[in-house]
Write a structure and sequence with these properties.
single chain, 182 residues, mainly alpha, 0% strand
Amino acid sequence: MNTAEALLRISGDRQRATKDAAVRRLAERASRLARGAATEADADGLHGDLAAAGWDDARWCACCAAHAEVANARNDSAELEAIEAELAGMEAEAAAAREQIVRLKQKLNVEERGKLLRELTAARDRLRQRRLTAEAIIRERAEYFPAETAERAAAARQENTERLRGQLGDQEAALRAVEAEL
């Protein structure tokens, strides 16, 4: 074997080793992504690993969709957690209003009852607005994802939607009960 052939063989061996290492990193990142344990570094490193592995543009698109899905799911989760925290605050407000109604029911005059009723109505309006916001976020995310990633994201969104709707329904029932007491 001459020098040129040896250099070509060494070069080919290095390229295969680089490609094999990139494929191993991709498999590890994909495993973490599938388990929901992907980090920002995993999402960012996918592009470099895909290029080193020699993947075509169609696979790049799938990578970008997965990357966007991870980022959007994190944003959705943060927004839904903020809404849930807001709902918990509203629950506390409603509980305080109920206690106040029980304590003052006999002492309240018509104007004070009207004021409490307006506050409860405002709380219900805020609650409805938060529901509309949450549903808009969910609809927007459903339209954003490509079909192949939408199915995976749909299950998580549906679970969050069901939980949020249940909380909103409980809040509305509590507000109706307080309103009925007035």
